[in-house]
């Protein structure tokens, strides 16, 4: 009986590994077909050493993650550049959603930048490790993502199906990161963060220097109701308008 139980457990574990491997390659194939100037190019999959885990090969972005750049206080990003970076990220996400891909882990750590041109930074969406392919109008959610950026519907357990608007919620937090250069809820315990997000009583504090247009967009993105959040086409359009207006103003 013990041997039978052990074999059953091993069989179930093997089925799970096979299922995960098939899913990995299926999604890798889809990601390899993505081509957009604001999405990090996906070149393929390699084995990380003999018998090692699989690793993805992607485009190299010279300045690394946007989080790293924001932490480098000596690298000044004026309002115009921050708007361009946010707009690029929105264009990348608009493209992913047009391909029915939900990212699930959108944050500044997963936005990669190239600042070689001092006049025009480039930002691209990367790290698709948690991405899911959307079918019909909803996608299987579950608890996936990084806590401060996770939408309430991913945490409250009300449904296992969520829409692509979980990425829009995350983008609202990203806008706050780009604005402040800080990490959300850095000094809070995880339990308090979960409770605050689920109860919709917690959002990052908006500084007084935030422009009204940026604040409105940011707060609409992290709205409790997914249906009230704008789509990325609308987000990109509004950021483009804000960016164009900033061109004629002196840097802040």
TrEMBL record:
InterPro entries: Kinase-like_dom_sf, Prot_kinase_dom, Ser-Thr/Tyr_kinase_cat_dom, Ser/Thr_kinase_AS, Ser_Thr_protein_kinase. One of its GO terms (cellular component) is cytoplasm. One of its GO terms (molecular function) is ATP binding. SMART domains: S_TKc. Residues 1-241 form the Protein kinase domain. It comes from the Eukaryota. GO terms for biological process: signal transduction. This is Protein kinase domain-containing protein. The lineage of its organism: Eukaryota, Viridiplantae, Streptophyta, Embryophyta, Tracheophyta.
């Amino acid at each position: 009986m013990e041997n039978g139980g052990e074999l059953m457990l091993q069989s179930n574990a093997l089925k799970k590994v096979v299922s995960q491997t098939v899913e990995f390659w299926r999604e890798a194939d889809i990601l390899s077909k993505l081509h957009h100037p604001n999405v990090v190019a996906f070149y393929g999959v390699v084995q990380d050493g003999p018998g090692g885990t699989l690793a993805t090969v992607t485009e190299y972005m010279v300045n690394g993650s946007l989080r790293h750049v924001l932490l480098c206080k000596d690298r000044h990003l004026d309002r115009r550049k921050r708007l361009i970076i946010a707009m690029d990220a929105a264009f990348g996400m608009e493209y992913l959603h047009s391909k029915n891909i939900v990212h699930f882990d959108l944050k500044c750590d997963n936005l990669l930048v190239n600042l070689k041109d001092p006049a025009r930074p480039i930002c691209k969406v990367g790290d698709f490790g948690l991405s899911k392919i959307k079918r019909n109008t909803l996608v299987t959610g579950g608890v996936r993502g990084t806590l401060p950026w996770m939408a309430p519907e991913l945490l409250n357990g009300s449904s296992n199906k969520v829409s692509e608007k979980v990425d829009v919620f995350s983008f609202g937090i990203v806008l706050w990161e780009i604005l402040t250069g800080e990490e959300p809820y850095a000094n809070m315990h995880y339990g308090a963060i979960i409770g605050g997000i689920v109860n919709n009583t917690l959002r990052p504090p908006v500084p007084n220097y935030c422009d009204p247009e940026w604040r409105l967009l940011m707060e609409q993105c992290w709205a409790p109701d997914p249906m009230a959040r704008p789509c990325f086409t609308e987000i990109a359009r509004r950021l483009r308008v804000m960016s164009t207006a900033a061109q004629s103003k002196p840097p802040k």
